C-alpha cells in the first residue's frame, strides 16, 4: 500500500436538513440530507475516453490572491473530508480557479479545457421535449425534485481517476467522484437517471438531466407516485436539495413551460422581451421595432397593412403624431410576434441557431430552428457589465442565451451568430481572464460553433439588445421632468432684489445639474444604428 501525505485532517461531515411537515416528504427526511461521503458503486460509473494518441496534459497552477488561498485551503479540506478527492501523482494536472457566486461566496472550479479538447464526446440522446409534455395530458398534481450536487453522486471509473487530477498551491489531487466542468458529465448523469427510473418513465415520471417531474391524475395517485420516486432515491442513495424542490403543486414550471391541469402553455418569460416593448416615442424607436417585426413578416399575416400607419411616421419631415390606429397596430403586431404561430415547439433532433448581440445598454438573443422563432430574450446591462470590453460583452450575450435556453440547447448542435468577428476564436485563445474562464466552464457542456454574422443581418438580436434603453430612458426622463417641474421662475416677485437674485442663481445651478444628467442620452442619440436607426 502506498501512503501519500495530506496537509489536511480527515473529517466526515454530517449535517441534518430540516424537512418541513409535507405529506409523504416527511417520511423521507434522509433523502434530503447533505451529501455524506462517497456514493455507492454504480453499474455505470463515469468514464473518460480519450482520442487516440493523446498524451497527458499538465498546466501550471494559476496565481491567487491571499483571500483566495485561504478559501482554497478551506474547500480542499472539505472535499478531502468528504472523500471526493484524494492526493495524486498523476501526470495529468489542470489549474484551479474560483468563481464568485451570487451570494458572494466562492465556488472552486477546475479548468478542464485541455482535457475536454481530447475527450471523445458522449452523444447520449435527449428526449423530445414535445413528446415529454404530451405525457402530461390529464395530470392535475405535480412535484419537481432537484438533486443536490448531482455530479458528485456518481463515482469515476478507477482507471480514469488520474485524468481528473488538478494542481494547487497545497498539492496535487484527483477526483474520486465526477467533477464539474467535464464535457461529458451532463450526458453521464442523464444516462444514470434514465436507468434508475426506467420503469417509471412515460408512466408518471419525466427526467431531464437532474430534474425529476412527478405527475398524477389524483391526490391518491400522486401520494403513491411520490412515495415510489422518493423510495427509489433512498434505495440508490441519491440526495435531493430541498430548497430547489416543489411538492403538491397544481401549476409548475418545467423546461420553459407552465404545466397545469388545463394543459401546457408557453412560459410568459419567453416572450417578455416582446410584450414589454415600450410604445415608440419618436420615428427612431418605430424603426427599431419595425426592424424586428419586419424580419419575421413572412410569419405575420397582413404585416404590410398593419405596419402602414407606423411606417408613415418614419418619413422625412413627417410630424410624430401617435394615433389610435398606430396604437392598435403596435399592440396587434406585438401579440402576433408572441403568438404560437411564431413561437414553435423545438425539434430536439434538429440543430439550433442562436443570434446574439450586445450593445452599451443591453443584451439580446433569439433562439431559432428551421427559420422559425422558438423564443426571444433580452435584458438591460447590470452596472458592472457596462465596463466590460466589447469582446467580453458580446460573449456575455452568448452565455446569457446558453443559460436561459439550456433545456433546449444541451445535447444538440448549436450554431451561434454574433456580429463580433473575433469572438469565434474564443475556444483557441491561449490566455483567458477570470471572467472568461468562468464562462468557458459553462460553455463546455454544449456542442457549440460560434460564427460571424454582420450587424446589419443580425437585426432581431440587435433590436432586442437596444430596446431596453427606451425603458431606462423613460425612468430617467420622468425623474428629470419631476425635478425640473420643481424649478420656479421668479418672473413676478414681491421679494427684495437681493433675494430674487438668489432664487435665480439657484435656478441656474439646478438647470445645469439637469443638463449634465441629460448628456449621456444626447451622446447615445449621436450613435446611429444601421438599418434600425438609433435610440
Task: Give the SSE layout.
Elements: H1 66-82, E1 85-87, E2 96-100, E3 106-110, H2 113-117, H3 129-134, E4 141-146, E5 166-168, E6 171-175, H4 185-196, E7 205-208, E8 211-216, H5 219-235, E9 246-249, E10 251-254, E11 257-260, E12 263-266, H6 272-275, H7 283-295, H8 303-312, H9 324-337, E13 352-358, E14 362-369, E15 372-380, H10 390-404, H11 406-409, E16 413-418, H12 434-443, E17 447-452, H13 459-485, H14 497-526
Parallel strand pairs: 13-16, 16-17
Antiparallel strand pairs: 1-6, 2-3, 4-8, 4-9, 5-6, 7-8, 10-11, 11-12, 13-14, 14-15
Pfam family, one: RT_RNaseH
Keywords: Endonuclease, Hydrolase, Nuclease, Nucleotidyltransferase, Protease, RNA-directed DNA polymerase, Transferase
Domain Reverse transcriptase: 80-259
Keywords:
globular; 535 residues; disordered C terminus; five-stranded mixed beta sheet; 34% helix; RNA-directed DNA polymerase-like protein; RT_dom; HIV Type 1 Reverse Transcriptase, Chain A, domain 1; four-stranded antiparallel beta sheet; alpha+beta; Nucleotidyltransferase, domain 5; 17 strands; protease; 2 domains
Amino acid at each position: 500500500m502506498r501512503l501519500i501525505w495530506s496537509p489536511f485532517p480527515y473529517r466526515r461531515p454530517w449535517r441534518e436538513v430540516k424537512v418541513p411537515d409535507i405529506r409523504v416528504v416527511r417520511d423521507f427526511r434522509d433523502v434530503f440530507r447533505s451529501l455524506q461521503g462517497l456514493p455507492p458503486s454504480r453499474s455505470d460509473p463515469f468514464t473518460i475516453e480519450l482520442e487516440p494518441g493523446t498524451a497527458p496534459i499538465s498546466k501550471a497552477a494559476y496565481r491567487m490572491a491571499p483571500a483566495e488561498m485561504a478559501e482554497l485551503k478551506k474547500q480542499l479540506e472539505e472535499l478531502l473530508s468528504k472523500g471526493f478527492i484524494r492526493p495524486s501523482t498523476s501526470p495529468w494536472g489542470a489549474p484551479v480557479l474560483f468563481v464568485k457566486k451570487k451570494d458572494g461566496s466562492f465556488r472552486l472550479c477546475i479548468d478542464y479545457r485541455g482535457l475536454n479538447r481530447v475527450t471523445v464526446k458522449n452523444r447520449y440522446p435527449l428526449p423530445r421535449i414535445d413528446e415529454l409534455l404530451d405525457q402530461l395530458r390529464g395530470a392535475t398534481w405535480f412535484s419537481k425534485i432537484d438533486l443536490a450536487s448531482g455530479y458528485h453522486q456518481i463515482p469515476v471509473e478507477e482507471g480514469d481517476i488520474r485524468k481528473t487530477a488538478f494542481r494547487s498551491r497545497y498539492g496535487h489531487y484527483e477526483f474520486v467522484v465526477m467533477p464539474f466542468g467535464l464535457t461529458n458529465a451532463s450526458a453521464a448523469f442523464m444516462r444514470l437517471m434514465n436507468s434508475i427510473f426506467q420503469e417509471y418513465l412515460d408512466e408518471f415520471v419525466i427526467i431531464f438531466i437532474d430534474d425529476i417531474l412527478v405527475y398524477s391524475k389524483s391526490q391518491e395517485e400522486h401520494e403513491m407516485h411520490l412515495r415510489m420516486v422518493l423510495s427509489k432515491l433512498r434505495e440508490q442513495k441519491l440526495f435531493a436539495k430541498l430548497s430547489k424542490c416543489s411538492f403538491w403543486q397544481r401549476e409548475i414550471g418545467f423546461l420553459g413551460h407552465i404545466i397545469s391541469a388545463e394543459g401546457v402553455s408557453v412560459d410568459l418569460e419567453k416572450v417578455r422581451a416582446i410584450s414589454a416593448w415600450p410604445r415608440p416615442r419618436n420615428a427612431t424607436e418605430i424603426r427599431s421595432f419595425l426592424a424586428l417585426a419586419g424580419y419575421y413578416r413572412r410569419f405575420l399575416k397582413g404585416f404590410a397593412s398593419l405596419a402602414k400607419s407606423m411606417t408613415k411616421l418614419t418619413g422625412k419631415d413627417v410630424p410624430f403624431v401617435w394615433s389610435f390606429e398606430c396604437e392598435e397596430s403596435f399592440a396587434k403586431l406585438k401579440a402576433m410576434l408572441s403568438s404560437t404561430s411564431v413561437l414553435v415547439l423545438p425539434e430536439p433532433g434538429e440543430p439550433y441557431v442562436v443570434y446574439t448581440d450586445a450593445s452599451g445598454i443591453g443584451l439580446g438573443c433569439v433562439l431559432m430552428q428551421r427559420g422559425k422563432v422558438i423564443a426571444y430574450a433580452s435584458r438591460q446591462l447590470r452596472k458592472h457589465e457596462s465596463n466590460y470590453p466589447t469582446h467580453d460583452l458580446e460573449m456575455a450575450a452568448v452565455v446569457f442565451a446558453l443559460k436561459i435556453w439550456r433545456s433546449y440547447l444541451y445535447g444538440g448542435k448549436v450554431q451561434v451568430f454574433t456580429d463580433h468577428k473575433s469572438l469565434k476564436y474564443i475556444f483557441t485563445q491561449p490566455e483567458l481572464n477570470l471572467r472568461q474562464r468562468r464562462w468557458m466552464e459553462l460553455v463546455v457542456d454544449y456542442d457549440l460553433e460560434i460564427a460571424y454574422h454582420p450587424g446589419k443581418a443580425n437585426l432581431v438580436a440587435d433590436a432586442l439588445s437596444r430596446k431596453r434603453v427606451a425603458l431606462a430612458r423613460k425612468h430617467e426622463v420622468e425623474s428629470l421632468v419631476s425635478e425640473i417641474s420643481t424649478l420656479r421662475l421668479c418672473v413676478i416677485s414681491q421679494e427684495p432684489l437681493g433675494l430674487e437674485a438668489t432664487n435665480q442663481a439657484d435656478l441656474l445651478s439646478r438647470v445645469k445639474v439637469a443638463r449634465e444628467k441629460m448628456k449621456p442620452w444626447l451622446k447615445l442619440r449621436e450613435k446611429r444604428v444601421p438599418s434600425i436607426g438609433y435610440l
